[in-house]
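Researcher: Please translate sequence to structure tokens.
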Amino acid sequence: MATDLDTGESLAFGSEGHDDIPISLAVQASAALPGLFPPVRIGERYFVDGALIKTLHASVALQAGADLLICINPLVPFDSRLAARRPRHENRSPAPDHLVDGGLPVVLSQTFRAIIHSRMRTGMDRYRHEFEGRDVILFEPTRDDTDMFFTNVFSYRGRSRLCEHAYQRTRSELYRRRHELRPIFERHGIELNLGVLKDHSRSLLSHKRRPDLATSASALDSSLSDLEVWLQAQQI
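Model: Translation complete:
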């Protein structure tokens, strides 16, 4: 999905009449966020990020017949009060007491995130009513994740660490939501591999790693959660 800069209209690449666009060029246009990347010329038209019109174009896939849709939204507003209560070792990127202290780039980032996140939540509620019987699952960072908010995504040096961080947080989120997700995935023939999710030595960038304090704390929390579920089942 991209936005025609001259008309403000959305365009789904791959749709009838627009199925001759190379995927690489379509992705480039879809990611051309104004202010960060220049508009992308395709034919005689210029395109920018599709998020200008709509944050999450899930309806395109749902209208095409998808019955399970997994959505990833990495852009959530940051909550400095929540971050201040998080143990220091769990966030490597420092956060100012007030986002205004981070200057114009931080203020603009928070503003942009707040706008698109509000629109996305509205869209998610609409999908549940318009496409009853379909499953739409959303994954996004927590609002106190300073690493996801403050890491410079244009820094090649920090990209590996950010990818590893996102991988570990996603595994933790899958395990935390396992009771909610298991019946949904089962309807579509998908099974969560809890052994992989509980293996805290796994790494995206290397085969094995030594768990840090945050990971060990997460593992303990997961085990206590399992124990609580088992005890509740025994009482029934």
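Researcher: Any highlights?
Model: DSSP finds nine helices and six strands in the chain.
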